[in-house]
Design a protein that fits this description.
Length: 548
Amino acid sequence: MAIISFLGFTILVAVIAYLATRSTDEGTSDGYFLGGRSLTAGVIAGSLLLTNLSTEQIVGLNGSAYESGLSVMAWETLAAIAMVVTALFLLPRYLKGGLTTVPGFLADRFDVTTKTLTSGLFLTGYVVVLLPVILYSGSVAISGMFEVPELFGISETAALWLCVWGIGIIGSIYAVFGGLKAVAVSDSINAIGLLIGGILIPIFGLMAIGDGSIMDGISTMVDANPQKFKSMGSETDPVPFHTIFTGMMLVQLFYWGTNQQIIQRALGAKDLAEGQKGLLLGSFIKILGPLIVVLPGLIAYHMFDGGLSSVDDAYPKLVNAVLPASLLGFFAAVLFGAILSSFNSVLNSSVTLFGVDIYKQHINPSADEKTVVKYGKMFGIILAIAAMFIAPLIANAGSLFDYLQEINGIYSIPILTIIFVGYVTKYVPAIAAKIGLLSGSILYILSQFIMKPMFIENAKVAAGVNESTEPSVIAAIESSAYPHFLDVMAILFILNVVIMLIIGKLYPRKEAFELAYTKQVDITPYKYVNQIGIAIIVIVVGIYWYFA
């Protein structure tokens, strides 16, 4: 029954997406990459949320909550503020410039080489980190909910490979052959199901703990594990409280304001007002995020007595344990849609970056739009296959969400730095942007993957750590031996900005940069954008203060 309902809902979404997109001319760059610049607020908000709320988020962050408690809610609550900043500051500038890709701005502001380096950084991060993590986390969820090893009589490793390739092939069909509009429409349908199903999981979980009463379930959990309900993270937690004011907001601004896979939805808006409304609607719904991506992890910790072998098993095991059999297939289909959403969103963005910023720019400048789309699709297929081979290899990466955020720093902070400096200054030259990109990436790799392990190992040796040392003691030693990666991001951001400003002072551009209006879409802002933006920020601060 579960498999029938799973297949039925999945096929229904595919049919609706096909019917809704068959009139879009996807032989042009705007048609294929930006849905013909026709997306409305509801579609933008739904697509934004589902691109974000996929299994690397649902499985990974719930696993982090299972391990570390409520403090990881900062990843969700502060996202709403970043979306408001994007709506107010970045999106008007993006649409004024008629951008198809974020690096496209960098070609005008600095030079083509800067744009190409940035696109290359994005693509490297997508294929090596993001696409494999999405495939792996999605496979863990589907395999856990349907008990694929038992169903087919195969090993867990074989089940992982089976699910990875199944998700990868179907996701590639959506993204490579359907374009952005097919992705966005299917996202919007699945977003509704994911919000409903996502909230049902903690409800059923709390009722199971509280013998039918949600409030009793909450009381039982808090009484049994009070240490898990401290929203201000300690120095040994994944999100120490002070990092909210250092690197956390930088990560959020990069993700929601400059990351091609996310902002491409807003770039496809039919006008600025619709784009802003989509971002504001998405940010308001995002406030509910902790109910879906944090609370289930806390419930799983109580229900399984903290005894799971992998923290990333927390969410799929909980779903399998508390969701009625009649709803399991539907929710698995919605979650499968969320997996596809993130996978095909990143893939579609990769195809866009390659087609527009690399193929058209450097390989075949005289190519017409159909040729650009054609070779972009071919690149997408190669990228998808590479990601499918890499995905099973990250099975032992530890806490999935923490791993993803730390690795992303290699390209997120350098890119955010040059976009920030590009928009707030007029005379900083192209050479400063190139140095900012390279120094940001190299210094972060040197810090996190060479110096950090060395410092931690020396601290452990000095403290006499051995096999009998308590895990909590080891965690305390590791956290005190080296700065948190969010602090490192903040330090490098400031350092890179200073370096770029100094270069701009010594070797300024000959002429001030002015952002030209391309008249691709109407850039009249939504008349209530400031009031609603302020209201959302107040609500977020209030919620965080209440739980803190």
